[in-house]
Amino acid sequence: MASTARSAPLTDALVAEPQFQEILRSSRSLTQRILESVEDTHKSCVHLQSLQWKVPENAKLATMRSTIGIPSAPVIKPISANFSLETALRAMHDGLELHHGLLRSISPRLEVKDRMNALQYDVRDLKIEIFRMLKIKTTEATVPPTPTSVELHLPGDYEVQVAAHLTLVQLQAFSQDVARCFRSLDRSDQEETDS
């Protein structure tokens, strides 16, 4: 559905640029790697039985989210006249900046942090790729935003475990939205369907 809605012919021309498509393919690969590693990262660092991977967030976890101070990720919608490519890329960048900050805040407090650190680097690399797409898309020179510091209230191990769980679940949902948006922009997918 997202691939049928376009913001303008200019967006089509920018998206069709070979350099943009190359960065997009790299970004799709990184997004897929993030999606594939989130659950394993969860298994390696979240050890509380009450924080199972596929269990939906309940009222207690929603309260803990607020107490710990985990912000919600930006919403990514299909590209349309009301949600431009630039808006989508900025939302992706902001969301990845948020998750990178959350992972950076949580990682030092974990006993086992190897997978969390690897995931953190993938999120950072994807954020850089999206910034490169933004530079192609925007006409004015864009200065990379300074990394956002995320202050979490993590007095004990329980809060660290909950923060890791909630962050990883949110990162997976956000990354799925990013993957859907990328799929709608990837011209190689559309060329294969057209032939």
UniProtKB/TrEMBL annotation:
<dbReference type="InterPro" id="IPR009079">
    <property type="entry name" value="4_helix_cytokine-like_core"/>
</dbReference>
<dbReference type="InterPro" id="IPR040117">
    <property type="entry name" value="GCSF/MGF"/>
</dbReference>
<protein>
    <submittedName>
        <fullName>Uncharacterized protein</fullName>
    </submittedName>
</protein>
<dbReference type="Pfam" id="PF16647">
    <property type="entry name" value="GCSF"/>
</dbReference>
<dbReference type="GO" id="GO:0045639">
    <property type="term" value="P:positive regulation of myeloid cell differentiation"/>
</dbReference>
<dbReference type="GO" id="GO:0005125">
    <property type="term" value="F:cytokine activity"/>
</dbReference>
